[in-house]
């Protein structure tokens, strides 16, 4: 299998897994805040398109599910269920629309680990799609769930 090829829910580098210490009330949340590089500056997006290191080409397969906080005019998503604290989202994004999509046609994305930022731990998996979510819904590549 080529580097970066795989199935949804698996990072090109590791399977998506979340430590028990990161559960609500656990010490993982506190450690993430301390590790974040710009806790007090919420106006600047992380470098490298929020990837923690390199991204790899990756194919999302039909029947996989992804999710996104924010409008359908964005190009970033994650495997469904990645906890909010493991994403690099601006504070307040959890109050934005949350949508889940089913992959209908194979979609090539850039995939990788998320850099800790905005006081959040990071470490989840993110996908940068080559087109806006709305366009992928319109062309039948994604279906709203």
Automatic annotation (TrEMBL):
Domain named TNT is located at 59-144
**Span of the secretion signal?**
none
| Superkingdom of the organism of origin | Bacteria
Give the residue ranges for region: Disordered. Answer: 1-22
List the Gene Ontology MF annotations in alphabetical order.
Answer: NADP+ nucleosidase activity
The protein's matches in Pfam families, at most eight in alphabetical order, are given as:
TNT (PF14021)
Q: Mind telling me what this protein is named?
A: DUF4237 domain-containing protein
Q: Organism source for this protein?
A: Pectobacterium polaris
């Amino acid at each position: 299998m080529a580097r970066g090829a795989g199935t949804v829910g698996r990072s090109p580098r590791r399977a998506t897994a979340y430590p028990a210490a990161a559960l609500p009330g656990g010490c993982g949340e506190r450690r993430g805040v301390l590790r974040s590089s710009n806790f007090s500056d919420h106006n600047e997006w992380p470098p490298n398109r929020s990837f923690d290191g390199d991204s790899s080409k990756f194919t999302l397969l039909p029947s996989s599910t992804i999710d996104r906080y924010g409008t359908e005019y964005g190009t970033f998503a994650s495997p469904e269920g990645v906890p909010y604290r493991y994403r690099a989202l601006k504070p307040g994004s959890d109050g934005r629309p949350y949508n889940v999509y089913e992959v209908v046609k194979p979609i090539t994305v850039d995939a990788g680990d998320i850099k800790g930022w905005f006081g959040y731990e990071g470490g989840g998996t993110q996908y940068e799609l080559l087109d806006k979510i709305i366009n992928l819904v319109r062309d039948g590549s994604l279906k709203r769930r």
